[in-house]
Structures are given as C-alpha cells and as structure tokens.
Amino acid sequence: MARVGAIEGLFGRDVAIDLGTANTLVFVKGRGIVASEPSVVAINIKTDKVVAVGATAKSMIGRTPGNIVAVQPMRDGVIADFEVTQSMLSYFIRKAQPRRRLLPRSRPRVVVCVPSGVTDVELRAVKEAAESAGARQALTIEEPVAAAIGAELPVTEAQGSMVVDVGGGTTEVALISMGGIVANSSIRTAGNHMDAAISSHIQRHYKVAIGTQTAEQLKMELGSAFPLAEEDSAEVRGRDLLTGLPKTIVVTSEEIRGAISAPVDAIVAAVRDTLNRTPPELASDVMDRGMVLAGGGALLRLLDERLRRETGIPVHVADDPLMCVAVGSGRFLEEIDQYRSALSSG
Ligand code: ADP
Ligand code: MG
User: Fold this and answer.
1) pLDDT of residue 97
2) 179 FRET partner, CA 20 to 30 A, in 134, 172, 211, 214?
3) Is 219 in the pocket of ligand 1 (CB under 6 A)?
4) Selection from 266, 263, 258 nearest residue 202 by Cα
5) Least confident segment among 60-74, 132-146, 240-254
6) How much is the CA Rg of the chain, to the nearest whole Å?
C-alpha cells in the first residue's frame, strides 16, 4: 500500500473546482468532494500577504484589525479581484494535491466551473489563474451545465433539461439540450441579496444593526418563499443604532418572507423569462419532466412550491443542492472525453 501512495505522490491529482461566489468546492478525481469552504481570502494590506483562505478567513469578516481585510474575490458571479482569486484557486488546487512538491510533469488537469455569463476575458483569467497555480491543463465548464450533470439530467441528449441554480451572488436559469444552453437568464440576484434585504429591514424597522452572518442565519432559520404551514419566530441580537448598545429583538418568519420578497420575486421572474423564451418542443419536455433547483438558495424553504405555483411546472430540488455543481464538474472531469465531444464548453 505504501508503494501505491509513493507512486501516487509523483502525480498531480486532477481536480474540478466549483468557484462559487459564496462557497468553493473541490472535487478530486477518483475521490469525490474533498473540500467545501467559503470563497473568502483574508489579506494583510500592509504586506499584501494572504493571511487565511476559506472558513478561517470567513470567520474573520467584521472581526479583523484595520490591517487585515477579508475579501470575497468572486462577486456577483464574476471575478472582482483577479489576484485574490488566483491565490484562492492555488490554495484549493494545492490543498487537493498529495503532500509533495509538484514536479513539472506531474501537474494536474483542472476543471473550473464558471457562471454562464462570464466574458471571454474573465474565462481567460480563470484559466490563467489555474495554470499559474500549477495546472497542466485548465478547462472550464459552465455552471448550469455542471449543475445539470450533477443532477443526473440527460444533458447530452436531444431533450430539454431545465436547471435553476440559486447561489450567493447570481441565479442562473438554463435550458440545456444536446450539451448546449438553448435559453438562459443569469441575474445578479441571489442569496447575498436576501441577506442584505434582511439587514436593511431590521435596520429600518427596529433601528438595530445586524451583521451579514446574522442576516444569513435568519434567512436559513426563518426565511421562506411561500407561506409556511407553521410560522415561526426567533430572537436576534444586534446593535441599537440609537443607544449604540447591544439589543435583542424578536422577528417572525412572515416578516423575513416580506423582507426577502424582492430578490425572491426576481428569481421567479428569471425562471418565467427563460420559460417564455423556450422553443415549443423543449417546453413540452420541461412540462413533462420539470425543472431542478440547485445551489444553496434552493434550500430556501418552499422556493420549490412557489415556483410550482407560479409556473405550473413540476419542480424538484437536487439531492444535495450545495454540492450539485461540484459533483457535476467532477463527473465532467472523470468522463471528460465523452463530454468534450458532446459539450460546447472549452
Ligand atoms: P455559490 O455557488 O454562489 O457559491 P452556493 O450554491 O454555495 O453559492 O449557495 C450559497 C447561498 O446559499 C448563500 O447565499 C447561502 O446563504 C444560501 N443558503 C445556504 N443554505 C441555505 C438555506 N438553508 N436556506 C436558504 N439559503 C441558504
Ligand atoms: Mg454555485
């Protein structure tokens, strides 16, 4: 067995990376998902050095001294900060490698999953980032296609498959057939905007400031896209804007649903918009087989029910929405030759 380990140490491990705005997931060929961490990098602005990446960096948000900033390099589904994205990608690629210095001929093949709206310049930036992090070959796959593969939809067949991926920064709706995207909508409204809407509601209504992580927790615990059978409430701690002191308030699930209604409505509208632009034959496939919800936003309670009511089409939530894209990117990596001839992705 030690021999196998030694031999394996000579070769880079091929990886697929779901570079999300909120979370980055790493899939290693033959192993599955080995890491899932927030897409956050903490940087010391005095020395320009990376202090931490991932979960450790996220826990620093709002808690760092002035010279350390926590950066989310992927914002609104695009690379907002190239250099930081590069550091993050190399951190994740290296983390997936056996503990041994990478030799030139043992460099891994890397698949990076990108939002479908990215420009050619951004695509090149992602590939360059992967190459400079040690990739022998860097390939990209569009996120909705990866989500569809992850949800086991027949993407390479002449059949309409619809996916709705609600992430942190973007929502991507796509209708896929024969490996390509036939109709899609990509909007820069998703989970983060719900968190922001919750913070601003609490601030306006109670004159209490809460952090983004508290707002996100409220969304997960109380949020919904449709009235709940049993409404709920929770205590929240924030800072009273009038006295400057900590204050505890009680908020209800109805209130949170109201607070996030604008971003939720925008997601519903994006789905309807894609359906409106779907060619008739494919629309009939979607009517029969429904759409699949992926991304962490798919976990917002009753988002499926809301979409079902508003579109009249069956809605399924992917088995593990947060992992769906990474699993799909990984499957693409493992069966790359088969997919590459069928997909239009680079
Ligand atoms: P990305 O692909 O952009 O990194 P993810 O697919 O990882 O995004 O989803 C992250 C988003 O999902 C975040 O906005 C997070 O708050 C949200 N999310 C995760 N779990 C839940 C939940 N239970 N209810 C509502 N939203 C959730
Ligand atoms: Mg995603």
Assistant:
1) 82
2) 134
3) yes
4) 258
5) 60-74
6) 21
Answer with the residue of higher pLDDT: 247 or 342: 247
- Return the residue whose CA atom lies nearest to atom 18 of ligand 1: 296
Backbone angles phi, psi at 163, to 5 degrees: -125, 145
Any atom of ligand 1 within 6 Å of the Cβ of 40: no
Residue to mutate (ligand 1; options 58, 116, 322; most atoms within 8 A of CB): 322
Residues 6+ apart with CB under 8 A from 66: none
**How far away, in angstroms, is 163 Cα from ligand 2 center?**
12
Query: What are the residues whose beta carbon lies below 5 Å from ligand 2 (ion)?
Result: 20, 167, 325
Dihedral of alpha carbons 337, 339, 340, 342, sign: positive
The pLDDT of residue 166 is 97
pLDDT of amino acid 146:
96
236 against 339, higher pLDDT:
236
